[in-house]
């Protein structure tokens, strides 16, 4: 959540739209059908949440690159095992074959790498709240007063 709130990386609109569509489609794959008009409205309403997810994904992907975070074979195997436990009808090998056939292994590796980046952040970064000094508080108050004065004069 901090990543979403604190980063200023702009989220490209096509990525936001794609994420919002994914979120809606994923939800309704379990809930049933809805009209195109309602789906469009729901996608539009999901854009703020989708934008946060996209911005978070971009930051985590950059951390993966900068910190050379990699996905081990064991992590990939563990993920497939977890999928097989949830989807009791298929074996681990069948699930792997499906993912390979659909060309989705690289995407799964990226997802695991981003999860590893989140773990790296938890282990290596300390979030410190900014404490304003009395001088900074006074300057901020003066700045707000001058902004309000400008708005009233307009």
Reported for the largest beta sheet, the result is: none
Number of helices: 7
Query: Element order, helices and strands?
Result: HHHHHHH
Task: Report helical residue fraction.
Answer: over 70%
What distinguishing features does this structure have?
flat, 0% strand, 7 helices, mainly alpha, 154 residues
Write the layout of secondary structure elements.
Layout: H1 2-6, H2 13-31, H3 36-66, H4 73-86, H5 92-101, H6 105-124, H7 134-153
Helix pairs in contact: 2-3, 3-6, 4-5
Account of the protein in words:
With 154 residues, the chain is an all-alpha fold. 77% of the residues lie in helices and 0% in strands. The chain is built from seven helices and no strands. The chain has helices spanning 2-6, 13-31, 36-66, 73-86, 92-101, 105-124, 134-153. Helix 2 crosses helix 3 (36-66). The longest helix has 31 residues, at 36-66. The chain is flat, with a radius of gyration of 22 Å. The protein starts with a helix and ends with a helix. The model has no long low-confidence stretch (mean pLDDT 82).
